[in-house]
Amino acid sequence: xxxxxxxxxxxxxxxxxxxxxxxxxxxxxxxxxxxxxxxxxxxxxxxxxxxxxxxxxxxxxxxx
Length: 64
Known about the structure:
Layout: H1 2-11, E1 15-20, E2 24-28, E3 34-37
Antiparallel strand pairs: 1-2, 2-3
């Protein structure tokens, strides 16, 4: 998790929003977009594997 946090914050320059040890991290990517990171496990395999995956959620508000 440390390497992932270092990549998103130091290399990409994004802001670390929350960290819960090595279990969950949120990174603020700006404009309402948050990236959630967690380690791979038997329940949640790593992306790029046939049984793995990634999930993206974007929050937005409509003002009108």
